[in-house]
Amino acid sequence: MARYDRALTTFSPDGHLFQVEYAMEAVRKGNLAVAVRGADVVVIGVEKKSVAKLQDARTVRKIIMIDSHVCLAFAGLTADARVLINKARVEAQSHRLNLEDPVTVEYISRHIAKIQQKYTQSGGVRPFGVATLIAGFDHSGEEPKLYQTDPSGTFSEWKANATGKNSKAVREFLEKKYKDDLAEDAAIELTIRALMEAVESGSKNMDIAVMRRETGLTLLRNDHVDRVVKKIEEEKEEEEKARKSSFAKR
Amino acid sequence: GGGAPGMEYVMGIKGKDFAMACVSATAVQQIITMKHDEDKVMRVDDHRMLVTSGEPGDRVQFGEFVCANVRLRNMRHGVKTSTKAVASYARQELAKALRQGPYQSNLLVMGYDEGKGPSMYYLDYLATMHEMNVAGYGYGSWFVLSMYDNLWHPDLTQDEALGLMQKGIDEVRRRLSVAPSSYMITVVDKDGIRHLKTLEYGS
Fold first, then answer.
1. Biggest CA pair distance of chain A
2. Residue B159: strand pairing partners
3. Pair B129, B94: CB distance under 8 Å
4. Contacts of A65 in chain B (CB under 8 A)
């Protein structure tokens, strides 16, 4: 096995590209990112790593604008993400200049995925250790869009998704609880609930942002997040109490 | 060269807390007026605009090129590039192209910067740049620049400036044999960019 994981361009006998799989492992170690598509918004939540005392927390941004109508959250190597984001930003303006239309979410997702794939089939490079969640609105059409890309260069559309640490458990939670056409508040609550499955609750540990058609990306204020967290915790306590009392009756 | 560049009319006025532009809205090819409602104002962002004139292809291409690159910079750095920086960037691109394939386009870069207030920069196709209170292009400006030099004062309100623009149009239509038949007036202030008036005359 050791012979097949060095050079990227080599398949292993059982059809694996080990460097790509190792890149996905790097993603699995990255901080959690969650996105939920509502009726007319996309809500994005990311796990906020605690910063060192002397570090300015505001400079660690994990939900990033590509253009005024598209944003991106990622899990994995931050520096690799920065490169992809820069390329996407240039492409977004280039598209506007040449085609007189803003990019569709699908177009820019396909563009980012194409770049990620190129780096799995070139000499002397390694794949990007990043999986992205891309959210936004198309110029025509009403509904919001959410896409995911990964280090292998595949991309697909999602109603709700998670990537990074504990993403499997969080995705399973979303599969159980997701409903179509969620209103904004319900989508925010679902995103926070999903994050709380894997992350310590409270605005100190999570950043939540809402992507809206008219106003673009808005980061929720800490007191807003804490309010929703408090509501969720209270509801969980109620459910716990109800469960215990139903046992006691037997 | 593009038809007759002097036939376009552009006048810009910087007031107390705004900058206003009056631009001819005709798009002319040879002897035919193709459009009467050509909007020659390009929005760079909510508080900055380019008022472009000159060779029809170059005017649009250059304007859109500047807008695209400024927007990219804004995205990358999370800032709103200042009016002066937008003008300086446009000037540099004009200078780079001058001795290769010049953009035959003149433009006013007008904007409102928080804390600083309004500003207006005059740029021409030779990569000249000046910050000015009153500026313009075209034959019409020969009549109107001196009129505005007399009437301008630093505390000009938007209503007064609108009155000045009307005076300028009246003078041009009275004395310039090839005066344009339609005009658009746009203003930028702390509340953003607004189209104020479109004026169409019979001939």
1. 71
2. none
3. no
4. 75
Determine which helix (DSSP H) or strand (DSSP E) holds B113, and give its type and residue range: strand B105-113
- Is residue B38 within 8 A of residue B25, CB to CB? The reply is yes
CB contact (8 A) between residue A89 and residue B64: no
**Alpha helix (H) ranges present in chain B?**
56-77, 83-98, 139-151, 158-175
Closest-CA distance of chain A to residue B60, Å: 11
| Chain-chain contact of B75 with A89 (C-beta, under 8 angstroms) | yes
- What is the DSSP code string of A32-72? PEEEEE-SSEEEEEEEPPPPPTTS-GGG---EEEEETTEEE
Min Cα–Cα distance to chain B from A57, Å? 16
ipTM of the complex: 0.86
Q: CA-CA distance, B27 to B9, in Å (whole number)?
A: 11
When CB atoms are compared, the residue of A65, A94, A97 closest to B75 is: A65
- Using the CB atoms, write b or e for B30-64: b if 16+ within 10 Å: eeeeeeeebebbbebbebbbbbbbbbbebbeebbb
Distance CA A188, CA A107 (A): 26
Residue B5 is predicted with a pLDDT of 72
Q: Is B84 exposed, middle or buried (0-12, 13-18, 19+ CB in 10 A)?
A: middle
Mutation for testing the B interface, residue in A69, A89, A219 having most B CBs under 10 Å: A89
Spatial contact of A188 and A210, defined as CB atoms under 8 Å apart: yes
The predicted-structure confidence for A112-170, as pLDDT tens digits, reads as follows 999 999 999 988 899 999 999 999 999 987 899 999 999 999 999 999 999 999 999 99
